[in-house]
Specification:
Layout lengths: L2 E6 L7 H8 L5 E4 L8 E5 L2 E5 L12 E4 L4 E2 L1 H13 L7 E4 L3 E2 L2 H13 L12 H9 L4 E2 L6 H21 L7 H15 L3 E2 L2 H9 L4 E8 L22 H5 L8 E7 L2 E3 L13 H9 L12 E3 L1 E2 H11 L3 E5 L9 E9 L5 E2 L5 H4 L3 E8 L17 H14 L3 E5 L7 E3 L1
Parallel strand pairs: 1-11, 1-12, 2-5, 2-11, 5-7, 6-8, 7-10, 12-16, 15-17, 16-20
Antiparallel strand pairs: 3-4, 8-9, 13-14, 17-18, 17-19, 20-21
Helix pairs in contact: 3-4, 3-5
The chain binds guanosine-5'-diphosphate (GDP), 6-O-phosphoryl inosine monophosphate (IMO) and magnesium ion.
Guanosine-5'-diphosphate binds next to helix 1 and strand 3.
Length: 424
């Protein structure tokens, strides 16, 4: 399938980075199509362990070109740090390109994210405080700066003054000192020196790759349960992590996307506020999943909320994305548990049973209804490299997952390392 979107199927952190890293070798392009450095995509390979925030997870293959796409919001400061860390580890980053049309995330966006969150009290979203909401707000309000502006200095100067006038009004409202346009402009010049040569108009090469039937991976950030339109609004991010947005953010027509792979973790995790029906709080199961699965945020270090797999949410996300296949991750984390549960429906407070994801005010009130499956307490899945090497109970559990979602499993991951994933 020449163009495949790889997207999160739950509340983020499913292992998108590891799946993209494992599949990127034969790709002409890997394109991040939305989000910003709120992402933390972990990749473990021969170069070491990396938490990629902005750079596509295909970066480790010099022959694979990587693009930070037009749909992204890019903080040049974190991008430069990330490039330096990769280069220090011996990774050749000459294959990284940036869309000139991607939004530039500015220091005031980060400040405002933190201030808005603090001012929201109990209504806080629990954002990553990376400035994502304010940057996409400026994009929608049409006062955002774009990376390409770094190459047009007069234009940049005017646009920066206009954007900063708005940002400063809000900073002052929060009791902060206004930022200086001159200082930010100097900062932009320093960024231009470091990343200006990577800026491209992505359409000519992407269109060519598409017309040549070259393999292209579209890498999503986060997941549909935090989608701006279809997630549990307002407990969402400010972009659309669904595959539907992938061609917009990458620069492809909609019919270009041949396949959509949903990355599914065999249990649920989430960071931030909002309804997550199968969240186990701090009970024994939550602690097992959090410690064995190392479920601490790759970007903020926050402990992740953990719980059983939610097949109702998965079906919803699968429909919205049009999953054609699934990549299953973290099966090994369930090794040792005698009993597993899968949520197959929700119960409303009045007793009615529903099998769909309702809007947030109702979603906050649902109770999960579970079915039980035997675990494989005596066996380990970590060394399995084929379907038949998995314990029988693990195969049954995955077959049930497959049946509940109605989409075939194509890959199974049994550990974080590149080689710890196999195809079916
Ligand atoms: P992403 O944001 O979707 O790329 O996922 P994260 O990197 O935030 O979180 C996934 C975490 O699980 C990372 O620490 C990965 O190294 C780790 N991981 C990925 N796949 C597996 C797996 O199959 N087994 C185990 N034990 N860890 C995994
Ligand atoms: P990856 O790509 C998990 C969550 C935040 C918060 C909400 C909004 O690694 O899966 P934002 O900073 O985007 O305005 O926060 O979204 N969130 C993530 N949760 N993984 C991520 O990225 C996330 N990016 C944002 O915790 O609930
Ligand atoms: Mg992550």
């Amino acid at each position: 399938m020449p163009v495949t979107a790889i997207v999160g199927a739950q509340w983020g952190d499913e292992g998108k980075g590891r799946v993209v890293d494992a599949l990127a070798q034969n790709m002409a392009w890997v394109i991040r199509f939305q989000g910003g450095d709120n992402a933390g995509h972990t990749v473990v390979n021969e170069y070491g362990e990396f938490k990629l925030h902005l750079i596509p997870s295909g970066i480790f293959y010099p022959q694979t070109k990587c693009l930070v796409g037009t749909g992204c919001v890019v903080n040049p400061a974190t991008l430069i740090q990330e490039l330096e860390a990769l280069e220090a580890a011996g990774v050749d980053t000459r294959n990284l390109f940036l869309s000139e049309r991607a939004q530039m995330l500015m220091p005031y966006h980060r400040l405002l994210d933190g201030l808005q969150e603090s001012a929201s009290g109990s209504g806080a979203i629990g954002t990553t405080k990376r400035g994502i909401g304010p940057a996409y707000s400026d994009k929608s309000a049409r006062r955002g700066l774009r990376l390409g502006d770094l190459l047009h200095l007069e234009w940049l100067e005017t646009r920066l003054e206009q954007a900063l006038a708005f940002a400063n009004r809000e900073l002052v409202h929060f009791g902060q000192d206004p930022l200086e346009a001159g200082e930010l402009f100097e900062q932009c010049l320093a960024w231009r020196d470091k990343i200006g040569h990577r800026l491209i108009d992505p359409l000519p090469p992407i269109r060519q790759a598409y017309q040549d039937n070259s393999n292209i991976l579209l890498e999503g950030q986060l997941a549909a349960m935090r989608d701006l339109d279809w997630g549990s609004y307002p407990y969402v991010t400010s972009s659309n992590p669904t595959a539907t947005f992938a061609p917009v953010g990458a620069g492809l027509p909609p019919q270009a996307v041949d396949a959509v792979m949903g990355v599914v973790k065999v249990y649920t995790t989430a960071v931030g506020a909002g309804p997550v029906p199968t969240d186990q709080g701090d009970n024994e199961i939550a602690q097992w999943l959090r410690e064995k699965g190392k479920e601490y945020g790759a970007t903020t270090g926050r402990p992740r909320r953990c719980g059983w797999l939610d097949a109702v949410a998965l079906r919803y996300v699968s429909y919205l994305n049009g999953f054609t296949t699934m990549a299953i991750t973290k099966l090994d984390v369930l090794d040792g548990l005698p009993e597993l549960k899968i949520c197959t429906a929700y119960r409303l407070p009045a007793g009615q049973v529903i099998e769909y994801v309702p809007d947030t005010p109702i979603y906050e009130t649902v109770e999960p209804i579970y079915e039980s499956w035997p675990g494989w307490p005596e066996n380990s899945t970590n060394s399995a490299r084929s379907w038949t090497e998995l314990p029988q109970a693990a195969r049954r559990y995955l077959e049930r997952l497959e049946a509940l979602v109605g989409v075939p499993i194509k890959y199974v991951s049994v550990g974080p390392k590149r080689e710890e994933m196999f195809a079916l």
